[in-house]
Design brief:
Elements: E1 20-21, E2 24-25, E3 27-28, H1 39-51, H2 62-82, E4 90-93, H3 96-111, E5 117-121, H4 130-139, E6 142-146, H5 156-162, E7 167-173, H6 185-194, E8 198-202, H7 214-217, E9 221-225, E10 236-240, H8 242-247, E11 258-261, E12 266-268, H9 282-298, H10 300-319, E13 324-327, E14 336-341, H11 346-354, E15 358-359, E16 361-363, H12 368-374, E17 379-383, H13 390-407
Parallel strand pairs: 3-15, 5-6, 5-7, 7-8, 8-9
Antiparallel strand pairs: 1-2, 4-10, 9-10, 11-12, 13-14, 14-17, 16-17
Helix pairs in contact: 1-9, 2-9, 3-4, 10-13
Length: 408
């Protein structure tokens, strides 16, 4: 693939980049929070609401059948995209957060018992911490934390020490949203399985630019969000092994998740519909299908190459600023550079560089325990995607230098 640093052919696919912010070109560097949407996804959403609005799975008229076909075709696309053995293993949720909550309530809530242990890593997003804490309180479970080093890498020796027969579930992120660390999830899963534990993988930050193969990983559960992979907000995926999903109780009750309802007893629908109660976010699911089409059209390998090239350039450029410290220097990392500048609060930095047209994220990145580990209240994060180029990074660099001089 050709370098995308100076001539990026994909920028034209994202109309939001055509606008000016504070009179400056927009340098969008917050893809870890949400990716921009290509025109083909936007047009599909418009088409559904303008010409094809209907509910799914219920109507016998053309509009409903058309919506149902598009809705269910997204399930087939996701099945192929993550190499799931069967389409019934692809559950639509609101996003990664709901996927984690579903497993916490329906697997841990049903099959874990007092004294059982759940392992999570020190770098997890709050949505991969709090749901486990909630179910642990109810079921009297114990949560233990897998430590990391100062580079932002999981200490695998310490992880193995924690793996006893009391551990029933391990939940880890594939890629850290705050640091960009790529965790060795395949090895984490292999070791967990040796003691009989199941594993949930948070793939939200990985799925748009790293190949996620659930069979190769041997993941028991895996979740991700549509809006982190060029799709709409309000839709996500839970993948689970069929034998686990079959024995788990439903997450919610309502329409579409039922088989037969009576006042005496209700029986539940088969997979995947057992976990999809009520009218879903139809347009978002259809839009997600188009997002998968877009990724396939560009090529996941090309996206991965582009992100790696951008990361290398960004790291080199920002490292040249005196007083700037990068948090997260793992040997295997991607897509995100978290940093701080000595003597300047991250919130001040982000506010001032916004006036230069630069959009980055600041704060604890929904990872307060990680910020505590690094002994900082917050960091700045520049997160990268397919549509970024050298000019974006240079614009960030120039803005940071300008702000640094202002505070001197």
């Amino acid at each position: 693939m050709k370098s995308i640093l100076k001539e990026n052919p994909y920028r034209k696919d994202f109309p939001v980049l055509d606008q000016m912010i504070s009179g400056k070109r927009l340098a969008y560097l917050d893809s870890g929070a949400t990716t921009l949407k290509p025109l083909m996804v936007i047009e599909e959403l418009d088409r559904y609401y303008r010409l094809e609005t209907s509910n799914v799975h219920r109507g016998l008229y053309w509009l409903s059948e058309n919506a149902t076909n598009k809705f269910e075709s997204t399930r087939d696309k996701i099945k192929t995209f993550i190499n799931a053995p069967d389409r019934k293993q692809v559950i639509f949720t609101k996003g990664t957060t709901e996927s984690v909550n579903l497993v916490a309530q329906c697997f841990a809530g049903k099959f874990l018992n007092e004294g059982d242990e759940i392992l999570i890593s020190q770098m997890e997003h709050h949505s991969n911490i709090v749901p486990w804490q909630m179910i642990a309180e109810v079921k009297k479970l114990t949560i233990k934390v897998i430590p990391i080093n100062l580079k932002g890498e999981i200490l695998m020796d310490e992880y193995q020490k924690l793996l006893t027969d009391k551990v029933k579930l391990v939940s880890v992120t594939f890629v850290s949203n705050a640091l960009g660390t790529i965790n060795p999830v395949k090895e984490i899963i292999r070791l967990a399985h040796k003691v009989g534990a199941k594993v949930f993988v948070d793939a939200a930050q990985a799925v748009s630019h790293i190949k996620v193969d659930v069979v190769d990983l041997d993941a028991d559960f895996l979740g991700f969000s549509g809006h982190k992979m060029f799709g709409p907000t309000g839709v996500g995926i839970l993948y689970g092994k069929a034998e686990l999903l079959e024995i788990m109780p439903p997450y919610q009750g309502g329409g579409d998740m039922i088989d037969v309802v009576s006042f005496e007893k209700t029986t539940y629908n088969s997979l995947p519909h057992k976990f999809e109660a009520g009218t879903p976010s139809i347009a978002a699911v259809i839009g997600l299908g188009k997002a998968v089409d877009y990724i396939n059209q560009v090529g996941l390998e090309n996206i991965h190459h582009a992100v790696e090239e951008l990361l290398e350039y960004t790291t080199k450029k920002l490292s040249s600023i005196p007083g700037l410290k990068i948090y997260g220097t793992a040997d295997h990392k991607t897509s995100a550079v978290s940093f701080g500048i000595e003597g300047i609060h991250p919130h001040d930095l982000a506010t001032l560089i916004d006036k230069e047209g630069v959009a980055i994220r600041t704060g604890h990145h929904c990872a307060q325990p990680l910020m505590k580990f690094f002994n900082v209240p917050a960091t700045c994060r520049a997160s990268l995607s397919l549509y970024n180029n050298q000019e974006d990074i240079d614009q960030l660099y120039a803005a940071l230098v300008k702000v640094k001089k202002f505070f001197e």
